[in-house]
Amino acid sequence: MGFRKNVGYISSILIALLFSNCILTSVSQNSLFEVEAKPIDKTSLQGKNDDVRTNVFEMANKLREATGEKTPNDYIVVLKDNNFLSSVRSLAGEAKSEGAALRHIYDHSLHGFAIRVPNEKVLEEIMKIPEVDYVQPDVKVKAFAQNLPTGINRVDGDLSSTKSGDGKGAVNVDIGIVDTGIDLNHPDLNVYRQVSFVSGTSSGNDDNGHGTAVAGVAAAKDDSQGVVGLAPGARLWAIKVLDSNGIGSSSDIIMGIDYVTQHAKEIDVVNLSFGAVGKNDALHKAIIKSVAAGVTYIAAAGNDGKDASSVFPASYPEVIAVSAIVDIDGKCGGKSSISTTVGKDDTFASFSNYGPVVDLAAPGVLVKTTTRGSSYTSFSSTSASTAHVTGAAALYKSEHPGASPSDIRNALRSLGSSPATTCDGNGHGYFTGDRDNNAEPLLYTAWASTTELAIRNPVSSPPFRSPFSQ
Question: Per the CATH hierarchy, to which homologous superfamily does domain 61-139 belong?
Fold first, then answer.
């Protein structure tokens, strides 16, 4: 009985084997190989691995570095240049749907927006959007100010075409002060427009004082009271991007640049007396586009006594970067016996940054100017020296409306005093103590010899008379 069971069991097995063999022989050899090869297809696995690596690489490539103090969870999203305003807003909405909080949309100087994300996963989803060119962290910048407390006379502003200090006249030009704002009610300042991009504020009114000080050096009215600027009475645009502590985020500053670019047919010259160390691709791209729209930007070199090549926005070749000198008596020659903690009369200020990126020097120590509360003060920094150049650039632009930003840079450099300039006893003369081999011209706003100017001026345009002579 047991044997029969075993025979039956074995017979069943043999029948099963025979049946399976019939099935196998009915399948071609190639088909068998195909079936067997699929689970171990190395080419397919390699392709998937390559796709993963590509995605990781693209994600890493889209996340740009921005050096400086970062604002946690805040990012600037820059879209590819072929995106128009409608698609920018649509993509910003898409980022919002992924969980991001929308802070700014850039319509003019940049295609993109600023966001705040709750976590890395949301950021990753946004970077996967095909239209995104790159994303960079939002970083903080600061106003270039020092609490030290005569500059218009030193650059012979009183001998310029507007005769700063004669108690009359105003310059027909528009200056953007991208800063802490401006005292909107100061009687010595012609504030024309105001706006704020700082969270928690509702106007361009100055809650720090830095922006008001810069505005006074550039454009205080010529009204026989207080102080006078290099472009007296110019229309001032108070564009607030820095808070009450003089600190601001690059995303807010880009929004300020975007606003300037929107009004590029109205705003002629912009003062940037702030900065940080490192790189900031998004801010640079915004400034490039704004300059291309015809706006001239003047930037402070910084107050750290080092090479400004690592400082933005001063290191951007599209801006006019400015260093600072000490001037006590408003005259060249270094004859004043009064000394300051940052240097003697007509010397390079010890706090000023320097280097090959610097285009011009100007007075930046104990500069008298306007301040909050309809009052006056003195301050020292490359912010002060930059404001001198801003006023001079605005004055030039008012007399040469067709001048491009590069025309203005070339003209101011050509007009400036050089190491070869012999001191004339007034403001036409150089300084000592420059920190490097880059002998940047010292700002000068009165010029007697149009012939010499034409020879030295590298601008490729028809000869013109000195913009600062009568």
Answer: Peptidase S8 propeptide/proteinase inhibitor I9 (3.30.70.80)
Please determine, for residue 28, whether its predicted confidence score (pLDDT) is greater than 70.
no
Q: What does CATH list as the number for 144-456? A: 3.40.50.200
pLDDT at 52: 43
CA-to-CA dists, residue 334 to 295, 343, 367, 388, 426, angstroms = 35, 11, 17, 20, 11
Mean pLDDT of 126-155: 75
Instruction: Using pLDDT thresholds of 50, 70 and 90, give the confidence band for residue 68.
Output: confident
Contact 386, 271 (CB under 8 A): yes
| Fold match, 61-139 / 144-456 | no
What element of type H or E holds 260? helix 250-262
d(CA 143, CA 296): 19
Q: How does 434-454 read in b/e, with b if 16+ C-beta sit within 10 Å?
A: bbeeeebbbbbbbbeeeeebe
Residues annotated catalytic, as ranges: 179, 210, 383
The domain segmentation of the chain, as residue ranges, is: 61-139, 144-456
Dihedral (Cα; 129, 134, 136, 138), 10-degree rounding: -70
Question: Quick one: tokens of 282?
Answer: 């998004």
In sequence order, the 6+-apart residues with CB closer than 8 A to the CB of 294 are: 264, 265, 404, 405
Q: Which of 331, 467, 469 is nearest to 412 (CA)?
A: 467
